[in-house]
């Protein structure tokens, strides 16, 4: 039996966020002032042509078989381009295969390894996602503009239009002052910067707290309250669709904004569990019914009170103000019982989650139902010192039947009904050696909590929270496709593909 001995809890998380706000707010003045002392000069080439074997590519891959296949295809294409350019092949690393450390997806723990392995004979490290296409020749031309002997942090800049909880309310006075990279466009570090950061990681243990938005947190770590370089915009790093007119001058592009792998999963193969409670029966449940419920073939509402008008099911677990671990595990057990139809997929959402089930069906066509899969927006806790990953609950947690069977078969349990269900599940998955699979299309927060440029190259699957928004208008704008019957003003999926 897996035993969960400790958990820092929401109070500590709130303290971490408050402290981060305070420290970052004090540092804003440094960011508004002069540039970093390690980057005083403008772009300047050293004159010597950059060879491809001086570039190390790191594909931010994942352990699930679908993602491994995509990453290997990306690596093959990079090596093929090296042959076409008659260049010595670069090192191409798959992030998920570098070690068994769960925290490696957060990249910072790997910096000492990168420095030791490539710090003397390489000039650049380029990080890209599995779906990022690279035009290698154009990328080399871009990198040659920068003095490889200096510290550089290059990328496609994103910024917040207003301070947001997912970034710990950083730079509350002017959130747009801080830029962080869009990972989908690729981002690059010069080796002098990698080497210095590696020494810092070795000498100063990474903080053991929450990893929520990795791209923002890496930028904060590199900037180091003004002691390190700020992100430098590289216009050739793009998120345009490959083949679009705007992509002609790009060194990087995207293949698609929503991965599709043939036929979507049938809606009858997805069982949907909505967590609610009596006090939200009249406020939140009607929103679900007016938006996405119609796309579910099999859906049940789980509450602390039986209401036949909805209807809801009382699982015998009292409502808690936070955590809801007892309720979630009761749902997992019901999913494997004869009380509900047998399906290969289980989706657990909150009553204030907005989700596109047709888009989820399309995405699930990429995954094998017989493989243990836990899919959603990945967060981390204590990754700098081991720790574990988890799917944050508000954006939706998707499980294959095989994953649920492994979880419950292990004896994993809640240590209390109000324990945080998503984090307890993450601890259990980590103990079982089952990976958490991340999709940036699931969102724990509202659309306005993300950079507009980040959302512009997505076809999102979910958003969360009704706070200070019209949830039905948000659903119609962001989660309804052209083929659906609505007159609301929204960006059309086909139009988004052509952006």
Provide a descriptive summary of the structure in words.
The protein has 499 residues and is an alpha/beta fold. 29% of the residues lie in helices and 17% in strands. It has helices at 9-32, 65-84, 111-118, 136-143, 191-203, 214-223, 285-290, 325-335, 357-364, 401-409, 421-432, 452-455, 471-478, 493-498, and strands spanning 55-59, 91-94, 124-128, 132-134, 153-155, 157-158, 180-181, 187-190, 210-211, 232-233, 237-241, 252-254, 270-275, 298-303, 312-314, 345-350, 353-355, 374-376, 378-381, 388-391, 397-400, 437-438, 462-464. A 7-stranded mixed beta sheet has the order 15-14-13-16-21-18-22. A 6-stranded mixed beta sheet has the order 2-1-3-8-5-10. Helix 2 links the parallel strand 1 and strand 2. Helix 3 crosses helix 5 (191-203). It is globular and about 75 Å long. The protein starts with 8 loop residues before the first helix and ends with a helix. Residues 1-41 and 485-499 have low confidence and may be disordered. It is a single-pass membrane protein; Single-pass type II membrane protein. It comes from Conger conger.
């Amino acid at each position: 039996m897996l035993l969960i001995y400790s958990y820092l809890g929401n109070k500590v998380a709130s303290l971490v966020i408050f402290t981060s706000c305070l420290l970052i707010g004090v540092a804003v003045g440094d960011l508004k002032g002069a540039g970093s002392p390690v980057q005083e000069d403008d772009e300047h080439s050293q004159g010597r042509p950059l060879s491809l074997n001086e570039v190390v590519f790191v594909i931010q891959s994942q352990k699930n078989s679908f993602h491994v296949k995509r990453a290997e295809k990306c690596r093959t294409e990079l090596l093929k381009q090296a042959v076409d350019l008659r260049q010595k092949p670069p090192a191409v690393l798959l992030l998920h295969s570098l070690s068994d450390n769960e925290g490696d997806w957060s990249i910072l723990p790997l910096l000492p390894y990168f420095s030791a392995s490539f710090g003397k004979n390489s000039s650049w490290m380029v990080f890209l996602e599995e779906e990022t296409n690279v035009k290698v020749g154009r990328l080399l031309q871009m990198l040659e503009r920068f003095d490889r002997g200096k510290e550089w942090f290059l990328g496609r800049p994103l910024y917040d239009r207003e301070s947001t909880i997912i970034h710990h309310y950083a730079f509350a006075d002017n959130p747009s002052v801080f830029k962080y990279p869009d990972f989908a466009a690729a981002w690059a570090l010069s080796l002098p910067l990698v080497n210095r950061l590696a020494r810092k990681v070795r000498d100063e243990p990474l903080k053991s707290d929450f990893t929520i938005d990795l791209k923002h947190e890496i930028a904060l770590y590199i900037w180091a309250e003004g002691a390190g370089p700020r992100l430098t915009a590289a216009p050739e790093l793009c998120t345009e669709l490959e083949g679009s007119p705007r992509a002609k001058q790009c060194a990087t592009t995207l293949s698609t904004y929503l991965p599709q792998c043939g036929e979507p999963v049938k809606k009858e193969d997805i069982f949907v569990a909505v967590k609610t409670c009596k006090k939200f029966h009249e406020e939140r449940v009607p929103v679900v019914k007016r938006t996405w419920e119609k796309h579910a073939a099999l859906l049940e509402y789980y509450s602390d009170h039986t209401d036949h008008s909805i209807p809801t099911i009382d699982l015998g677990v009292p409502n808690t103000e936070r955590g809801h671990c007892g309720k979630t595990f009761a749902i997992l057990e019901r999913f494997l019982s004869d009380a509900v139809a047998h399906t290969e997929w289980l989706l657990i959402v909150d009553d204030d989650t907005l989700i596109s089930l047709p888009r989820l069906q399309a995405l699930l066509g990429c995954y094998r139902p017989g493989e243990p899969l836990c899919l959603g927006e990945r967060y981390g806790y204590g990754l700098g010192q081991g720790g574990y990953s988890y799917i944050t609950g508000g954006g939706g947690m998707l499980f294959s039947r095989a994953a649920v069977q492994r979880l419950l078969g292990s004896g994993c349990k809640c240590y209390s009904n109000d324990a945080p269900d998503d984090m307890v599940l993450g601890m259990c998955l980590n103990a079982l050696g089952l990976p958490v699979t991340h999709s940036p299309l699931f969102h724990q927060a509202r659309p306005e909590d993300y950079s507009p440029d980040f959302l512009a190259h997505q076809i999102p699957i979910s958003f969360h929270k009704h706070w200070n928004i019209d949830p039905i208008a948000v659903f119609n704008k962001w989660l309804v496709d052209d083929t659906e019957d609505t007159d609301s003003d929204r960006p059309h999926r086909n139009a988004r593909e052509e952006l």
